[in-house]
Structure formats: C-alpha cells, structure tokens
Amino acid sequence: xxxxxxxxxxxxxxxxxxxxxxxxxxxxxxxxxxxxxxxxxxxxxxxxxxxxxxxxxxxxxxxxxxxxxxxxxxxxxxxxxxxxxxxxxxxxxxxxxxxxxxxxxxxxxxxxxxxxxxxxxxxxxxxxxxxxxxxxxxxxxxxxxxxxxxxxxxxxxxxxxxxxxxxxxxxxxxxxxxxxxxxxxxxxxxxxxxxxxxxxxxxxxxxxxxxxxxxxxxxxxxxxxxxxxxxxxxxxxxxxxxxxxxxxxxxxxxxxxxxxxxxxxxxxxxxxxxxxxxxxxx
Length: 282
Known about the structure:
This protein is an alpha/beta fold and 282 residues long. The longest helix has 21 residues, at 7-27. The radius of gyration is 19 Å and the shape is globular. The protein is 41% helix and 17% strand. It contains 10 helices and 11 strands. The termini are far apart. It has helices spanning 7-27, 43-59, 74-86, 105-111, 123-131, 139-150, 170-179, 194-198, 244-247, 262-280; strands at residues 3-4, 33-39, 62-68, 92-95, 159-163, 183-187, 203-206, 223-227, 231-232, 238-239, 251-254. Strands 1-11-8-7-5-6 form a 6-stranded parallel sheet. It has 2 domains: 28-113, Rossmann fold, CATH 3.40.50.10860; 139-262, Rossmann fold (3-Layer(aba) Sandwich), CATH 3.40.50.
C-alpha cells in the first residue's frame, strides 16, 4: 500500500507555523496585508479568492479585496496596481487568474512590484529562481517541494520527471527540483516515447492538464507520484492528471485529488506573504 501524502494536514501544519510567526511580528508592531484583485465572477476564481481570504484571517494577515466588474478596463486595473505598489501598508498583491478576455495578462502581472508579487509570476522572480537568488517562488511548485520534504522523501540524487512545461507550474517545478539536487527531465506533449521517459522517474510530477492521462504504464514500481492536475470528470467529481486507481498500487507514495497539492498552493501563498516583509525591508 502506498503512503497517501496528506496535503490538508501538511498545509495546516505550515499555516499554524505562519500563524505563530505573524503573532510574533504583531508583538513588534508589524502588520501584514495582502491585496487580492478579482475581475469578473468566474465561479472557480470566486472559490479560490474566498479560500485565500479565509487563510489570511486564520494566520492573522489583513486582506484588502478588490472585486471588479467584468468590464473593467486595462487602464483601470493598471491604475489600481500602481496605487497598491506605492502603498507602504500593502505587502502582497495578487491578481486572480484567469482574467476576462480583452485584458493583457502578461502586462498586468508585469506591472506588479516584484517585491509584492506573492504569486511568484513576475519575470524578475522567475529569473531569481533560475539563478538561485532570493525572491518569491510560484506557490504550487513550492508546495510540492514542501509535500516531499515533510513526508520524508529524499529529492537529492533522485531521477525526477516533470510532465508539463507551463510558466506557472512545469518550468518552476523543474528548477526547484534541480535546486534540491534532483536529476531533472522536463517532458511534455511533444516528448517522444513519453512512457519510457516517465518510467525512469523516482519522483514523477504530473502537471500536464489532461484528466487521468498518467496511467499505470507511465509509472515505475516504487515511484513517488505528485498529481498537480485538477479537473471534473464525467460524473462531475474532482480528479487529477493521474489515473489514481491504476497508479496508486505501484507507488511508494502518491498525492490524492482533492486533498493533495491543492491545499498547499494557498499555504505557500501565505508563506510568501509572511516573507514579503523581510524581502521589502532588507
């Protein structure tokens, strides 16, 4: 039987540590504030934003909420970001994605001050990650590293395969595994003989964006499998990129969907918010 990596329990552990840290900061007169901007009322975005606000409340971080109508113009949005960049009382700025059509996602994310970019999407933070400098790291990949470390899974010297090369998950995931001294292969939809590549993995991270694509014949016996995907199947139930039922019996450890990587993303966002103060005051 594989170890089921419990993202809910590990994320709670991280949030409790952060809560303690924030309480100590408050004793020194330091308060933290996260500004969350949501444009439009995408149902999934509404759930994520609500969860982020709840996490802020739990840890003791103040949250500013900007719920903007779908028809908000690029200029209006950039104006709000500019104002938040200049506010001393705001430590983190988060623009909830996806944005409605007509808004230039890249331009908007680039407008956020890199020292307030708690999502870790700004080119400067991505660059810092690639050369090993301090900066914010994209929350989902950072959460995967914490899941592995806190589950006692050694990364150093292991053969790691990441399936997916998105800017938000795949690329930073590969860089973080490399930073932990893993031997990393980035695979994707154009990779030839994908099954042969993934079967070499001691640690396999599925971030491909296709429901249950990774079946048992992609996985070697005794591998650790991390499923970053989240989808609704034909019965409207949540599932991941991994076909859990067929893959789990082969694994040493595996993350479930839901309850695996998902809760970690918000925990790591909170960690970035707490770290923002020292980055801004170094």
